[in-house]
Every structure is written in structure tokens, then in C-alpha cells.
Amino acid sequence: MDSIRVFAGDCTVSFEGSRDRTQRGRVVVVAKPDRTVLVHDAGGYQPVAWLTRADSLTVESGPGSFGLLARAGDQTLTVESNDVTGRAEYPASDAGVPVGSHPDTGDPLVRTNGSVVALDSGTEYRLPAGATVLDETCGDCGLPLMRVERGASFEVCIDRQCDPLDDHVKARLDGEWSCPDCGSPLRIIRRSGRLLAGCDAYPECETAFSLPAGVVVDDCDCGLPTFETSRGRRCLDSTCEGR
Ligand SMILES: [Zn+2]
Ligand SMILES: [Zn+2]
Ligand SMILES: [Zn+2]
After folding, report:
1. Which of 16, 39, 84, 156 could form a disulfide with 49 if both were Cys (CB 3.0 to 4.6 A apart)?
2. Shortest-distance ligand to the CA of residue 145
3. Domain residue spans in the chain?
4. C-alpha 137 – ligand 1 centre gap (Å)
5. What is the pLDDT of residues 26-59, one digit of tens each?
């Protein structure tokens, strides 16, 4: 698991970059796993000095001193301790919205950007774009269910091994529409990680459309389906002007 390192003491803090600045005070320095370094003094929410996602971070931690050197492009942040109050390292995860606990281990589950993560084990269930995690749990494994819109609305386990979304989409939509270029059925396939409605005559016909995150509500003038998505109505063919 990732960890956050914390250093406290009377420090001299130097920033070199767009403008140079040296400060000294009793501060708390936070070094994150992505090499973001934040130097906090007693006031306000904003660090007095910081470097976000540094290209490199060097930490020296001796018995009576510490020092940090972070670089990002032509910017450099240096922290040198004059007197050490304390230092520590704590396990850290991404924070997210609580969505229950793991059925086997009781490990708390949180929804972060694009994933459900088990806090203690670090196990990650990656979510398809636009997925909503539900309060209901999977009848097979007990993990939360998610709602995903791909032509229709599907409620499946967040563990794609347990109940693959692709199987549901195929069962519902495979062969449902015809290729506008050759008339062959459009098959539901996964190619290069994307869920597509692709022509059955592939590779002779290479027509394929990425399935939008939305439900089919109508037919487009071109003959393909119209999807209602969070960004409005659109044809399966993203280049089609029709709705
Ligand atoms: Zn399941
Ligand atoms: Zn075709
Ligand atoms: Zn169209």
C-alpha cells in the first residue's frame, strides 16, 4: 500500500522557479505517494510552499535531521530541518464515497474516480465509464451491484469476473442493428478494450461504433439507434448529424 510521509520541525524552505523564495518556521511537511510535497505552517488551508507531482523526490532522514528535495521541470523545492519535532509514515489510499464492505473480509469499500477499492487489501474493481454503484449486492458474491447503460440499462456485479457486463450486453443487443455500409448484422464485441457494435463482415467491412454510455430511446434517420446519454441525444454513429 502507498504511504504518506510527514515531517515536522523548524525548517528552512526554499522554492526556486518562477520566483525564488526562502522561508523559515515551525512547519509540517507532507510528502504524498505521487511525490506531491506540501509545506504547512500555522495559518490557513494553503501550504506556504508546495510542488505538485514532482518528477523526482529525494528524502534524507537522519537521527537528528531531515531534508527533502523535490524537482518538477525547472522548479525546485528544498526543505532542510533546523530542529526536528517528529516524523512518521502512514499507510494511505485514495479516499472515496463509502459503498459497503467486502463480503469475505469486511474490508471497507469506497468508490473513487472510476473504481471501487477495498481499503485494507487495496483490491481494485475498475468500473466502466458512467457506472453507478448501487446499494444492492450481488446474489453470488455479495459485492455491490453497479448500473451501467450500454444501449439498455444493466445491473451487474462490480466484479467483472463474477458477472461479466459484456455477456449481458451481447445477450440483449448482439445482431440488433444492421451495418449501414453493407447490411450485415452488427455484433457486440470488445476490441482494444472498447465495447463496440462492429460489422459481422469484419475484416472485409471495418465499420464499428463504440457503444455510448446511454440507453436506446429512438431510431435515427440513418437507421441506427439513438442513445439518450448524460450529454444529450446522439446517434450510435458519433459522426452522424441525426438524433
Ligand atoms: Zn458478484
Ligand atoms: Zn458492414
Ligand atoms: Zn444516425
Report:
1. 39
2. 1
3. 3-91, 97-144+151-158, 174-235
4. 8
5. 999 999 999 999 999 999 999 999 999 999 999 9
